[in-house]
Amino acid sequence: MEVNNIMQFLEDRTILVTGGTGFLAKVMVEKILRVQPNVRKLYLLIRACDLEEAIKRFQMEVAGKDLFRILREKHGANIDTFLSEKVTLVAGDIANENLGLRDYNLIKEMQREVDVVVNAAATTKFYERYDMALNINTFGAKHVSDFALKCINMKVFLHISTAFVSRENHGLILEKQFKSGDSINGKTKVDINKEKELMEENLKRLMTIKATNKEIASFMKDLGIQRAKHHGWPNTYVFTKAMGEMLLGELRNDVPLVILRPSMVTSTYKEPFPGWIENLRTIDTVFAGYIKGTATCLRGDPDCILDIVPVDMVVNAMIVAMAAHVNHPNSGIIYHGTSSASNPVKLHQIVDWSVEYFTKHPYISKDGSIKARDFKLLTSETSFQKYIAIHYQLPLKALKIANMVLCHALDGLYTDFSRKLQIGTLFSDIFKHYALSKAIYDDSNLKNLLNIYKENADDEAQVFFFNPSSINWKDYYMNTHLPGLVKYAIK
Questions:
Q1: Which of the four pLDDT bands, split at 50, 70 and 90, describes residue 254?
Q2: Model pTM greater than 0.90?
Q3: CA-to-CA distance for 138 and 471, rounded, in angstroms?
């Protein structure tokens, strides 16, 4: 494996990127357009019913974001012309065969021109409907791979997964491929086609009895969690992503496949500027609740390792990995885009830094009040249940009686307490796997890639920098991530 000039690799390249409005995809698109304006073309697949909707989504959700500020400043009045020359928007959906494309001429054009495919499309909701998660995360991966196989100049297929496809929450997690049928618990065998049949049978049954959309959605969410836990995964998201990897593994001899598994992706470290993020992601959801006064505790191990990595480092690793494996015999190599092996950060540090930051810089809500108070990290299930009982369940029972006596004069307070109880319980359930983890994600493959890249292209090393071991986490968290979170993600 050799990694030479990345700029040269990108020059005159035609790349298909799925999940075009997603977090990783838009950061990658901005990066390529900013550092290598001589890229030939980026086909950006956007989930839309037609081109008009795709254009609208691109303008609002991609090019119109502050993320593109540096690029807009660079091109000035010519930015729209530049984007129209370099980016071809494609309305489609990876949940469908042929990516949902209906324009025969466009399909043939893409299959003639595309030489790199990046599948960044996914539904990342932990408790997504099973039908949607299967169609996008599992069979969507196969649909993208099938399309890539039809591209006559195909050089490399990069698939974005997640480090958390491995459920083990302790020990060293290797950069290891899934084999078809593998389960986490080792007791069951995952049959992807049977999972699809089960989903479709239940969906058909629900349609037959004329279940409401709400009833169907609720059942499908429950089915996803049930099937995930049956095979040993904690949620629907990571289960369906794991099955997607299994399907790709079966095809790896036919297409040059590279799989990158990032962990918790956070705000930009440096590029295009520090602190840009979109929406609340993973553990940030808890602290957004904390500063709004809706979350006051979390069940977790203080020494739990939270594996986080800035999004610009992930994108740089994606680009270098693509360049490294162009025209190489396919090995289906796995890269962990993670930090826990080289620069671990613990849960209590994240909590302490967050409380410290918001004590110094209080978040003022729309009504002018400061909601954040103390935040408790509860180390056992017993202490968590005790805290919930004392601070929420008992006051809620008292409020319920008082509210009845006072003819519902305390409805607002009762609703507020009920919501806090629901949120506290929900956060504990969603994040308990991650907040109790002692896992270390091996990143030997990625370190090897970094070393080879630095040896062969030292002059570019800072342009495509992806070394999490160099990060001072407290400085990054206090001076970059949390300010960015407040500016861009907390509404």
A1: low
A2: yes
A3: 34
At 76, list the tokens.
């000035």
How many alpha carbons fall within 13 Å on the CB side of residue 106?
A: 16
What tokens does 111 get?
């299959």
Amino acid letter at 309?
V
3-state helix, strand, coil in the chain (%, to 5): 55, 10, 35
Amino acid at 274: P
φ, ψ at 266 (rounded to 5°): -115, -170
Segment 351-362 shows an average pLDDT of: 90
342 secondary structure, DSSP code: T
What pLDDT sits at residue 288? Answer: 84
Token readout for 146 is: 């099938």
Mean pLDDT of 402-420: 78
Measured in residues, the chain has a length of: 491
The token pair that represents 449 in the structure block: 């890639």
For the chain, the first-to-last Cα distance in angstroms comes to 45
Active-site hit among 31, 86, 155, 241: 241
pLDDT at 415: 80
Q: How far is 347 from 344, CA to CA, in rounded Å?
A: 10
Q: Helices 213-231 and 236-251, interaxial angle, to 10°? A: 70
CA distance 105 to 91: 14
Annotated catalytic residue 241: yes
pLDDT tens digits, one per residue of 256-274? 899 999 999 999 999 999 9
Helices (H) and strands (E) in the chain, counts: 20, 13
Asked if 29 and 82 touch (Cβ cutoff 8 Å), the reply is: no
Average pLDDT score over the chain: 90
Q: State both tokens at 277.
A: 């993020």
Is the predicted pLDDT of residue 227 greater than 70, yes or no? Answer: yes
Whether residue 428 has pLDDT greater than 80: no
Which member of 86, 142, 155, 237 is catalytic? 237
